[in-house]
Amino acid sequence: LKAAESGHTVLTTVHADTAVQTIERLRSFMPVEREKSSTYTLSQQISCIMNQRLIKTLCQGCSRQSRANAVLTDEQLHILKLEPDAKVKVLNPNGCDICNRSGYLGRALLLDSLLLDCKHHDRNTLYDVMQTNLNDVLTVPGVSFYSRAENIMGLVHEGLIEPRAAISQMEMA
Asked: How far apart are CA 171 and CA 162, in angstroms?
């Protein structure tokens, strides 16, 4: 926090499940006797939080196209915002030489991010929210949120991940 206050760019890693939970995790590192002042400093200095997970991507050499309603239930189609007759890529369980017969090749980033481009008076609102209910951070003016669920749906639509794997990741989020 001292480095950020003095104008330095600070990058760090923290183990947390979501971008919003990262704020709580950072607050847990603060000494109890300086919790309010440290939270105020954090609310004034933080500009971006990115929470990431990796998911296996389908081998583009051997994955197969299928109709979405052939591999997903109506509820799952609704969750992923897919039309029943939309084309999706699914795992080839036999794989190919490219993916060493696994059906997967590489990983994709599942991103959950908060961008805090708040004006000064909104930073004070951010501080108040950080003191009371962190879930309200998303309602503060100047805070942009990109959810992991949006990211997952994009990867399914692009044919990079299997729809069933996407559903299981959304249930974990």
From this structure: 15
Which uninterrupted H or E stretch holds 49? strand 48-58
42: which residues sit within 8 A by CB, 6+ positions away?
Answer: 1, 23, 26, 27, 130
Amino acid at 34: R
Please give the span between the terminal C-alpha atoms of the chain, in angstroms, as a whole number: 29
Side chain identity at residue 115, one-letter code: L
What does DSSP assign to residue 141? Answer: T
Residue type, 106: G
pLDDT, tens digit, for every residue of 102-146? 999 999 999 999 999 988 888 889 999 998 988 899 999 999 999
pTM of the entire predicted model: 0.75
Between CA 102 and CA 89 the distance in angstroms is: 15
Q: How many residues does the chain have?
A: 173
Q: Tokens 């209910």 belong to which residue?
A: 133
Tell me, what amino acid is at 129? V
